[in-house]
Amino acid sequence: MAMAVAQHRESSSGSSIDKHLDAGKYVRYTAEQVEALERVYAECPKPNSLRRQQLIRECPILSNIEPKQIKVWFQNRRCREKQKKESSRLQTVNRKLTAMNKLLMEENDRLQKQVSQLVCENGYMKQQLHTVNVSAPDASGNSLVTTPQHSLRDANSPAGLLSIAEETLAEFLSKATGTAVDWVQMPGMKPGPDSVGIFAISQSCSGVAARACGLVSLEPIKIVEILKDRPSWSRDCRNLEVFTMFPAGNGGTIELVYTQTFAPTTLAPARDFWTLRYTTTLENGSLVVCERSLSGSGAGPSAAAAAQFVRAEVLPSGYLIRPCEGGGSIIHIVDHLNLEAWSVPEVLRPLYESSKIVAHKMTIAALRYIRQIAQETSGEVVYSLGRQPAVLRTFSQRLSRGFNDAINGFNDDGWSILNCDGTEDVIIAINSSKSFGSTSHPAAAFSFLAGVLCAKASMLIQNVSPAVLVRFLREHRSEWADFNVDAYCAASLKAGTNAYPGMRPTRFTGSQIIMPLGHTIEHEEMLEVIRLEGQSFVQEDAFVSRDIHLLQICSGIDENAVGACSELVFGPIDEMFPDDAPLLPSGFRVIPLDSKPSDPQDPFIANRTLDLASSLEVGPATNHAAGDAPLCQSTRSVLTIAFQFPFESNLQNNIANMARQYVHSVISSVQRVAMAISPAGLNPATGPKLSPGSPEALTLAQWICRSYSFYLGTELLRSESLGGDYLLKNLWQHRDAILCCSLKSQQFSYLQIKLDWTCSRQL
């Protein structure tokens, strides 16, 4: 049978009989016939019976082929296309798995070296202990302690800088691929086939350190170009300026770089760095960008430029990018810093002593950004509203940068504090610069007569997950926001000048529509438009839209991300959503602190929301006596709020008072929400969820006790415990009790009070 088919194929090449065979036999198509069928396939891969018959009529070269054979050709063509796509996908997956396998094998080798090193150190320590035990101490002898001294080098000469660069390179490589740092796996970031990379943090080393390695489908040169432009991907980088650059060996370069970073909260100063950055190529073709601080706090730019910053230190850090076979790169990232935690209040020092926070803000953020750019380049990311990914990414960066500018309020940006005596917990700052706005978007600058006013505050919250709190604030805006304030800011942007006195009275209908625009590859950040539906009180304007649109970014709402910062930043925007729209960002930032013990004697301490303004201390850490050691743990976070308002010169005082009152109102709402969603609120053993200064709580507690006494003829509590806060505490701890809540119109409030179940049934 095979012989017959072969003979038929050979004879059919020069005859016309092969164009029309039985349905069950092989058909050999000419090049013209295949070209005609391919044209139809490109337009319609699956034509129906009528289309196939029409094709035969319109193409004379196909007239001698049966419709059934054409149907079979299209089936085979679709099958080949599917096999081709699947083969391409499997090849891509195979290359990725091969690279990841290589990465994991290298990680395994590094861990084995680390184990061997620890075994050797353990044996050496045992030998030293044995030597100390068997030898008699010489009391008269003086022990000689030698401290290794680094050779002094001239950081002002190219030769000295090259020596520092080579030493930095060696130390960085030992951290990236060696055992110079005792790395442990990042909590909540297990490696896997679909993970962004492998993440680790330092367990015991000077400063804080984080490490990441992963596979990226970009060429090494492109990755180096992106990572060296730190302000483009790091939300915490305010400015990066290269002061000096000169060539080094192997085609490398040495740069002296001055970097400024934003402070995460209003309660701490910002950091700056004066570093040497060395870019070179290794013998195996890998690219390296390593960096370290140069000694001397006075080095770098003028003191006036760094007046609002604390000089921090970059220990040998950087990026190692190795090309992969078949395309792509394997990237190793190491960030090792000394953030000078002594310069911040003791309660905030975990922010500067936590390697997990550095990992999220710098190391993981860099690798995620590279992966995001790679997917956008390959066309894997598709956003809504027809916007290009770069445009939406720019919107996110402008919102984040504007929010950081408002929190920090740098003098060289035009900010100044307004009437602050140090006792007010809400700080009012104004910016009267005429060109206030994004410097990279001059068309987006505001044209207000006076400027912008910012009201900001920070506080400590306990026993509340930052992710849960931010998610609640995002989904239930009406619980804390004032629609009229949003309408005022939106009207100011539309009018170009402040139009608040002439605004039409508007009522918020309570409807909030969230329209997603885009998100990052792991959904850790979302960009969206919020539409707040408003309704006019004036009858003649009943059919005029009073809706308000906000551009908003929400990040860190994944509860499994350990140490991640949660943010909700928004700003009014025109409903046409132009690319150069001016933005005035406001919002919330919640940063988790490491768990800190709390005093078990105070039933309120684990659950209340604290104001930091009256309890901040800067200096050495406080030593607690052994007898004062607390017994329980509480989860703490720092919440920072900043709201910006445009104003005219004749309304500055009015807007300042309005802003201060509004931020106080938002703080109160957030405190109530935080206590309501706290898991400890459902556990009576952790203490009451009460506000000691709340008159409503005390009044309701007194009513409960009086009703109990009136209907049952006996006292619910002893008379000596009926005064002030003791009444609330004892009522909460009553053995037979249930939970009561209250809901006020237009404002969410709550009161966690417990009362006797028997009494409630009789009432």
From TrEMBL:
Residues 154-382 form the START domain. Residues 94-121 form a coiled coil. It comes from the Eukaryota. GO terms for cellular component: nucleus. Residues 22-85 bind DNA. It is found in: Nucleus. Its main location: nucleus. PANTHER family: HOMEOBOX-LEUCINE ZIPPER PROTEIN ATHB-14 (PTHR45950), HOMEOBOX-LEUCINE ZIPPER PROTEIN REVOLUTA (PTHR45950:SF10). This is Homeobox-leucine zipper protein REVOLUTA. It comes from Hibiscus syriacus (Rose of Sharon).
